[in-house]
Amino acid sequence: MVKQQPLVDFVQRVRDLVVAEKLDGLVGTRIDVDGFSVTVYWHGQQPAALGDLVDRAPEGARVSVDSVPFSATQLDREAERLIAEYRGTVLRVGRNDDFTGLDVGISTGVAAAETVIRSAMPLTFRPAAPPKKAAARFGDVSPYWGGAMISTPDSSTWCTAGYTVNLADGRKGAVTAAHCHKDGNSVWEAGLNSTTYGAEVRISQSTDSMLLTGQAYDDSTYIDAWDSPYGVDVQGWRSPILGEYICDNGAFSGMVCENVLVWDVDQIIDLGGGNVVHSVFTTTTGPRFGSAGEGDSGGAAITFTQAGGEDRALILGEIIAIWTEAISDVCHGVQDRLCGLFVDHVDVNAINSALNVTPMN
Question: What pLDDT does 136 receive?
Answer without folding.
Answer: 42
